[in-house]
UniProtKB/TrEMBL annotation:
Family: Belongs to the short-chain dehydrogenases/reductases (SDR) family.
GO molecular function, one term: oxidoreductase activity, acting on the CH-OH group of donors, NAD or NADP as acceptor
Annotated SUPFAM superfamilies: NAD(P)-binding Rossmann-fold domains
One GO-annotated biological process of the protein: fatty acid biosynthetic process
Organism ancestry: Bacteria, Bacillati, Bacillota, Bacilli, Bacillales
SMART domains: PKS_KR
Protein name stated in the entry: SDR family oxidoreductase
InterPro entries: KR_dom (IPR057326), NAD(P)-bd_dom_sf (IPR036291), SDR_fam (IPR002347)
Length: 257
């Protein structure tokens, strides 16, 4: 544990699996006390918490659907009571039901927007009130390069994350006078349990193209949850004190290919 965030309290939404789990781990390794939010899979949340506790980190788990404002408000109030402060918010919770354009139902569209965009706003607003009273804090939104260039079977997801990028810029403008910094990480390809089949399908399609030859100087194909976690630690710490409103790509160069 490096102590860069020693004494800080961080909420991570969607922290039980995949990228969120890696973010929780890296925050705890940096000394933060972690409030790990999950939607429904308590078993995975407990496993993630146990991993953090195994190296001496402090963590508590909170079940909340971020798309429901009343649940978000209750969670944030409980975290404040349990930990005494909230210094960092990582808005990571998100869904991506992979669907062809004409197969995106009204229900799938609405749920994707509610979780990925509305949930991020609800959580930021609730946490922002506490950060304002404390004199500042750091909000970090997990977005994606897909918002800028589209993605395979991800029209609804990309649209929601485009909204996240706009929300990040707008919130940084609105909250800077309270000492609250707001930034977003544009995530590249990171294999997790929710996208491994879709990534394999896309790779098979790309392999049929003559243009699919690999650049010998290219970075590794995919990132890891810990790659994202390390970037979150930077944006949470005072190292980034002059950084707000940034859309920081952590993507192995995906945006410039």
């Amino acid at each position: 544990m490096n102590g860069k965030l020693s004494g800080k309290v961080a909420i991570v939404t969607g922290g039980s699996r995949g990228i969120g789990r890696g973010i929780c781990k890296e925050l705890a390794l940096a000394g933060a006390r972690v409030a790990l939010n999950y939607t429904s899979n308590e078993a995975e949340a407990l496993k993630a918490a146990a991993e953090i506790e195994a190296f001496g980190g402090e963590v508590r788990i909170y079940q909340t659907d971020v798309a429901i404002k009343a649940q978000v408000d209750e969670m944030v109030a409980n975290v404040r009571t349990d930990f005494g402060a909230i210094d960092v918010l990582v808005n990571n919770a998100g869904i991506c039901p992979f669907l062809d354009f004409f197969d995106i139902t009204e229900e799938a569209w609405n749920r994707t927007i509610q979780v990925n965009l509305s949930g991020m706003f609800f959580t930021s607003q609730a946490v922002g009130l506490h950060m304002r009273s404390q004199g500042g804090g750091s909000i970090i939104n997990i977005s994606t390069v897909t918002a800028a260039r589209g993605g395979y079977k991800q029209v609804h997801y990309a649209a929601s994350k485009g909204g996240v990028n706009s929300l990040t810029s707008s919130m940084s403008n609105a909250l800077r006078k309270y000492g609250i910094r707001v930034n977003a990480i544009l995530c590249g390809g990171v294999p997790t349990d929710i996208n491994v089949e879709q990534m394999a399908e896309l790779k098979a399609i790309q392999s049929q193209s003559p243009a699919a030859s690999r650049d010998p100087f290219e970075l590794r194909d995919h990132g890891t949850p810990e790659d994202l976690g390390k970037a979150v630690v930077y944006l949470a710490a005072d190292d980034s004190i002059w950084v707000t409103g940034a859309l920081m790509a952590v993507d192995g160069g995906a945006l410039v290919r």
